[in-house]
Amino acid sequence: MSESRPVRAAANAALVLALVLVPLFFEPFRVTQFTQILVVAIAVAGLNLLTGFTGQVSVGHSAFFGIGAYVTGVLIVHAGVPMTAAIIAGTLSGGIAGALFGIPSLRIKGTHLAIVTLVLAASLPAVLSTFSEITGGTEGLRVPRITPPRGSFLAADQTRYYVVLGALLLVVLGVFMLDRSRTGRALRALGDNEIAAVTYGVRPMRLRIGVFAASSTITALAGALFAVTSGFISSTTSYMTIVGSIVFLTALVIGGRALLAGPLAGAAIAELLPAQISRYSPEWANFAYGAILIALLLLAPGGISSLRFRRRRSHPAPHVLPAPLQQEETPHDTDDTRDQAQPTTRIG
Amino acid sequence: MPLVPLLDVDNLHARYGQARVLHGVSLTVSPGEVVVLLGANGAGKTTLLRAITGHVERTGSIKFAGTDITRASPAAIVSLGLVQVPEGRGTFADLTVQENLRLGAYTRRVTAAALALEISEIVERFPILGERAGQRAGLLSGGEQQMLAIGRALLARPRLLVLDEPSLGLAPTVTRAVFDTLRELHDEQGLSLLVVEQNADLSLGIADRAYVLEAGEIQVDGPAAAIRDDAGLRRAYLGY
Amino acid sequence: MLRVERLSLAFRGVQALRDVTFEVAAGGVTALIGPNGAGKTTMFNCISRILTPDSGALSLDGIDLIGVRASRLPELGVARTFQHAALFPSLDVRGNVRIGADVARHASRPALPVDETLELLRLSADASRSTEGLPLGTKKRVELARALASGPHLLLLDEPAGGLTHEEVGEMRDTLLAVKERLGLTILLVEHHVQMVMSMSSHVVVMSSGEVIADGAPSDVRSDPRVISAYLGS
Amino acid sequence: MLALQLLVDGVGKGAIYAALALAIVVAHRSTGLINFAQGEFATLSAMLTVALTGLGLGVWPALAVAAAASFAAGALIQVVIVRPAMRRDLVPVVIMIGLYVCANAIGQLTFGQNPRPLEGLFPAGGLVFGGIRVQWSLIGVILLQAVVITALTLFFVRTKIGLGFRAVATAPEASRVAGIPVERMHMIGWGIAAALGAVAGVSLTNLGVYVESHMMTTVLVYSLAAVTIGGFDSALGAIVGGAIMGVVESLVTGLVPGVSGDVGILVSLTIIVLILLSRPQGLFGRERVARV
Prior knowledge:
The complex is a heterotetramer.
Chain A: H1 5-25, H2 28-54, H3 61-79, H4 83-105, H5 110-130, H6 132-135, E1 141-142, H7 156-180, H8 182-192, H9 194-199, H10 204-230, E2 232-233, H11 242-255, H12 261-277, H13 282-299, H14 301-305, E3 345-346
Antiparallel strand pairs in A: 1-2
Helix pairs in contact in A: 1-7, 2-7, 2-10, 2-11, 2-12, 3-4, 3-5, 3-10, 3-11, 4-10, 7-8, 7-10, 11-12, 11-13, 12-13
Chain B: E1 7-16, E2 19-29, E3 34-38, H1 45-52, E4 57-64, E5 67-68, H2 74-79, E6 82-85, H3 97-104, H4 112-125, H5 127-131, H6 142-154, E7 160-164, H7 172-189, E8 192-196, H8 200-206, E9 209-214, E10 217-223, H9 224-229, H10 231-238
Chain D: H1 2-31, H2 38-54, H3 59-85, H4 91-111, E1 126-129, E2 132-135, H5 136-158, H6 160-170, H7 172-177, H8 182-205, H9 217-230, H10 235-255, H11 264-278
Antiparallel strand pairs in D: 1-2
Helix pairs in contact in D: 1-5, 1-8, 1-9, 1-10, 2-3, 2-4, 2-8, 3-8, 5-6, 5-8, 6-8, 9-10, 9-11
């Protein structure tokens, strides 16, 4: 965070410009691959909203991604709903599912929330194969893809790229504005120290449900866009399974705090590296995700601290919790960083 | 005063992560001596004890009975005979009183029969622990838990017993009983004691010497009686 | 201003508060003192609604506080600090103070602007620094600034002198008295530093083992034999 | 009659869930972490058992060797991966997820995609009681779990290391002060958990499940539900919770029309959410100040 504000703004403008120019210089196969990276970046931005602001980890975002993708796909294929309306419906469905999970997340935190979201992630493929008549199960569902508007000079792959890029920029702008708002401050305070935050008027309930819903809405939007840009979804598509959650988490850890560059860089590395590896064998890609994630978390504490995977307080939080006779010893020494020596008084 | 102290702390610095808490503390405890450590909340008393017993990042020099323990593990320090009774007593609430006592001898190699004999000696000193042997320690009263914590520490065969606020949360009569016990242990067995305590008069009453800690540095040290009688000093550093 | 009547609270069989009764007069400095484990912080947590007492009454200017949620207290003009300066490490110094100001805007009550609050507490130079790694004395001033920015009538201070050096304690006392005069505050503080308490408070309440054992002017409390016994054990 | 048959089958499944749930509880009691990879560890143990029988070892000795190897691997993973991560807030949770994916991938890479059966631990055939069939293997699996649980209980209650383990689980800070080697207890806990997982994985094959890389995926979900029901720190709770989940799964999928096996997962999800909301310490756990 050493660079100044204008420098950062210029860097972001250059990044956006580069993103806009990319499809003009690459062959369709590459543009399609980049589109997929942008889709993942949106999903990661969604997860970052939850983890970055509240310090909660969700292992279930693959399910919100899947809900977005399947509601969109099924509405288009089986109900003939126009694509734009289907994307909106898919996005909102993921948001509603997220709000429903936001309610338990008021009380379920940390490891317990991870259990719930893990089981949620494990449930989606099971549900998809149970309703395989509609969803296609493991056989999958072919979804019509976004096509260029009539008379456009853009090719199909370029059109899809720009739609997803537009969505990503809108999402990042929204998160940026939230970050600078009063609500953003309240969210950070809540993530840091709930009791102190409440003492200063922060209302955890609304904020937690809201942020969970917003986070899953964004990730569901990524899923919806995935359906209409890739054109094929199935219950074994890795983003719909727990592997998807791992990809999002890995990208989040790689990317760190920067709002636009973070998800992009994370998504690019998380997508491209295993793709290289999986040319030899697809199982190696999954292994690589897990191994990269573990290695990053163990070896690069600096990159993680920027993610707000903060170190556990080395001296305990204020013991304002009901513990008149605490079982665990809590030193009530506090810190100070003074160094001036003072003469010792000696008596006797 | 004997020439070789039992505990010799020299220029000790300690920190919790980024926060430095102790800035070059030196103190000694001689064999058979009772030393009390006074100071306001947040002065670093607990950190000092935790640094001595190996629970905090520390630099400087700590020698115990001639052995350098600056880098020793907590378990190694306990087995040398430097045993702590932590603040809030640190009993194992879910385990029985009997099991708590057995854990006291964890670092020692001792047969089951010998351990049973030692436990019965402890129970003789603290009869209430015998009555409650099969109960969960969490169900004991504060005073009983303090007795259990001391009893458990004795089973580690301490040469120096370090106590952190033994009076915390106890009624005045119970506090008095705890200090009577400590005095007995000192008188009968010649046990050395290092005590952190809020209750200045009571602890100064059993101590040979005292140190006053403020903001991570020793401000005052001297004979307990002198500190007890110096009203100006008490007002300045002990708040009363 | 604040009335505490017959407040009692037990945790797992330990009676932390027993029939605690006292009053905080508007415009004054009331101190709550007593040995460790006396129940002072528990009392504080009841007033700031983090804990709910088993029985008894708690009222602020005639409003019953027992039914008020903790997050509503700042709107009623109550702000507090914590024993260990509970700042928000992911916000910088200004961000921490702005959290307080956010509340004031919500309550549409006049409060010091953020910049003025920072200046008052000599924090302007540190405004964009992270709160992690600040010296304890500075952290405590940031926390005080956060509380003041919320425009309180009643300021609850939990050990403002804890962990400070001799000189810093004096500074803290002077700062507190100055902001109290300037903003017309009422202060309730929990403190161990008896000298600081005696020199700045108009009224002292002494607790021991969950009970109030003395209540009155500093000079009266100081010579009360029960207080001396609780503190000195003799 | 159908219901009764389903009940019997459910108890058999429940014994497996209980075994894995117990493994999760032991690991949690030692380090305060839920090991999401516990099921995948069990899969790897089962794969190892298959490989060992392929080398001509009898199935019982193969299980013993696999359990010992699992103990070593679990302890090693605790030391190398889990311990360095323990000091930070949410990092361990994400690391557990990473372990899950890695272990699953290792299974696929080493064992391949083709499911293979494992030789039974118990004789074929069984009993028929008034129309209800009970296979010997089902009785054997339940008895095996009972023996394992008894041995484990004796270890924790009677031995010095067991006592030290329980001390660390109750109060890690106080344990350090008492000179108990806390890190070693964490390591032992993860080792025992992995060995329990080996027994669970091999037991599952005795109920007719083939060894393959996804064999434990749904078992993990049911076991997590069992652990939630019983309380994350309660061994008894894990056993009872496992039995409950086995019976619930069997009855729901057997009696409710149109419900396939996979939707049982949704039942687990509902149970987990409801219990965490209403009684987060589980039915058998004691309330405690949050430690997670």
